[in-house]
Amino acid sequence: MLMRTDPFREMDRIVQQLSGTSGTWSKPSVMPMDAYREGDVYVIAFDLPGVSPEAVDIDVERNMLTVKAERRPAAKGDTVQMELSERPLGVFSRQIMLADTLDTERIQAEYDAGVLTLRIPIAERAKPRKISIGGDSGRKQISG
Is the pTM of this model over 0.85? Predict the structure, then answer.
């Protein structure tokens, strides 16, 4: 159901992890995701631990799904001295080209335990259907 992918996205993610850089709105970091079909619904799950639901933005324009989220640093007082900071902060984003067979008008979003789950129904026109064969009542046999 996904149309294409960015082959350099994973490479960018690895470089960002190794260099310790965080995403910005102009150059967001990648967010990990799973995508699978469950019956007549296509499911996409994004890992966003530590991100509040208010900091998640989901848009669909035509068949392009865009998910952006921002994880801000925890409020720290003047007496706090950071010893170790490994959790990535900043902006995370993912763009996915959805197939025409998905009903983008009826996307449902849930957020639970740091996982954003989108459920996209398969469009009725894309579901398999039986086609019945009409009777022979209109045919005539020609004899010679």
Answer: no
